[in-house]
Amino acid sequence: MIGFVTPMIQAALWIVLFLFADRLSNPLVFVSAIMFAISFSSPVANFGFDTICEKLDRRVMVAGTGMANMSAYICAMLATQIIGFLLDWNADGHAYTWSNFQVAWLGLGAVWLAGMIGLAVCLLLQRRKNIAFRR
Fold first, then answer.
1. FRET partner for 8 with CA separation of 20 to 30 A, picked from 38, 48, 61, 93?
2. pLDDT in tens, 53-65
3. First vs last Cα of the chain: how many Å apart?
4. Transmembrane region positions (predicted)?
5. How far apart are alpha carbons 81 and 33 in whole angstroms?
6. How far apart are CA 100 and CA 32, in angstroms?
7. Quick one: angle between helices 2-20 and 44-55, nearest 10?
8. Residue 128 and residue 130: Cα distance in Å, rounded?
9. Where are the alpha helices (DSSP H) in the chain?
10. Domain residues of the chain, as ranges?
11. Do the Cβ atoms of 29 and 17 come closer than 8 Å?
């Protein structure tokens, strides 16, 4: 559950930053809080890999680790491309402004939201499988 809640907290902090950065009295302190939250919770990813290691055969484990790493890389590249597209589209050939970046970062939010929905679906399917297995 912590692996699901922690990204939600981080996303909420990022949303506050991008929506209200111009109204924050000291945005650097807020960014520092975000960086602390990210660095504090980064080891959570290791719990996911440990869970996979415990549940899978070693022959399958290598493929699972590769899939997890590659999917994260592909999502990062997809988010970067969407951000770039939205930034260029919103600026319409003019110099970039803060509002252009605020709109462009919605691309990351879309990729992140898709990933969180996928995570929720996988958790639901795994719970159903575990309940059926126990019967």
1. 61
2. 677 676 666 666 6
3. 24
4. 5-21, 27-49, 70-91, 103-125
5. 27
6. 23
7. 150
8. 5
9. 2-20, 27-41, 44-55, 58-91, 98-104, 106-134
10. 1-42, 45-135
11. no
